[in-house]
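Module 6 notes. Inverse folding takes a fixed backbone as the condition and produces residue identities as the prediction. Think of it as a translation problem where the source language is geometry and the target language is the twenty amino acids. Below is one complete input and output pair. Work through it position by position during the lab.
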């Protein structure tokens, strides 16, 4: 019983290397080309696969090892991961929108060493220093990628002057996720079709087990993503859709579990503290104002209500003009 694998991924692939200053120096030919590719991919697909040349396979191996130990902890231990923000703490099949194959834990302020350390001490009272250092380095690396993409998007739209203040108000949630193998007769849906409420989400497939699928902007079929060891999916959320005045697409995605291996993955979500304003530069005759200024965590909270569950667009319902 279950959904069959979908078509092979057609999502754009873009190469990145934050260590290559010459290639990605602002205003260089390579920088401008990459900005154009990023913007086009986000407008057409709502996402792209980033080939991250600065990545470390050794670090990924350590993260995978740590995640296996993390999810092997007793349920009562994992349930200590709580938050007053929706979808920021421990989630399993008892939570809304989450299916039986899925478990995940959330680390708020994931680019703070103290926050990562506090999260792990909650689960391992004696500490887990090695995993803490690796998890913090991992979060830092992915947040640098998110900021690079965001800078490219802001500059591509001619609103680079707002970038620094936006970054100053950005906070990151790292979710660690495990999908178990479906049992006989059990549905193989790991996560229902949805859009994220983040500004950007960066997804990483830790142990090479595929399952993430994207629905194209103008299509009813699904594209199954084929990750390479050093690829990350950069995906726009509903907050980015609203900020861009509807120019950027928020990608609908789901997880389908097939095969005989459990799936481990991570997702770094960027959120904005306070009110997000729609830049005046993104409003014109061809793009009339579609969204009002909005509170990002208010958008997330609205999504968690029963009223919003069946709505096709959380952003339109929450802050649409």
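Target side of the pair, the amino acids:
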């Amino acid at each position: 019983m279950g959904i069959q694998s979908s078509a092979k991924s057609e999502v754009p692939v873009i190469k990145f290397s934050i260590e290559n200053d010459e290639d990605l120096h602002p205003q260089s030919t390579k920088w401008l080309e990459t900005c154009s590719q990023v913007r086009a991919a986000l407008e057409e697909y709502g996402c792209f696969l980033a080939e991250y040349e600065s990545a470390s396979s050794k670090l990924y191996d350590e993260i995978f090892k740590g995640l296996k130990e993390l999810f092997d902890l007793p349920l009562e231990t994992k349930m200590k991961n709580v938050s007053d923000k929706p979808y920021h703490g421990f989630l399993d099949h008892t939570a809304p929108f989450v299916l039986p194959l899925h478990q995940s834990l959330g680390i708020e302020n994931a680019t703070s060493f103290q926050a990562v350390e506090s999260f792990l001490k909650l689960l391992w009272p004696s500490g887990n220093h090695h995993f803490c250092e690796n998890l913090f380095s991992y979060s830092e690396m992915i947040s640098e990628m998110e900021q690079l993409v965001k800078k490219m998007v802001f500059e591509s739209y001619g609103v680079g002057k707002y970038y620094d203040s936006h970054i100053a108000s950005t906070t990151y949630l790292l979710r660690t996720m495990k999908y178990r193998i479906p049992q006989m007769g059990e549905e193989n849906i790991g996560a229902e079709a949805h859009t994220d409420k983040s500004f950007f989400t960066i997804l990483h497939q830790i142990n090479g087990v595929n399952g993430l699928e994207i629905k194209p902007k103008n299509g009813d079929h699904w594209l199954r993503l084929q990750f390479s060891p050093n690829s990350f999916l950069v995906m726009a959320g509903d907050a980015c859709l609203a900020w861009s005045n509807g120019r950027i697409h928020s990608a609908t995605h789901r997880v389908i579990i097939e095969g005989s291996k459990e799936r481990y993955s991570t997702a770094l979500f960027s959120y904005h503290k306070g009110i997000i304003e729609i830049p005046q530069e993104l409003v014109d005759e061809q793009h009339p104002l579609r969204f009002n200024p909005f509170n990002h965590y208010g958008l997330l909270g609205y999504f968690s209500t029963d009223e919003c569950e069946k709505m096709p667009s959380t952003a339109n319902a929450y802050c649409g003009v």
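Reference fact for the lab report: The chain has one domain: 7-319.
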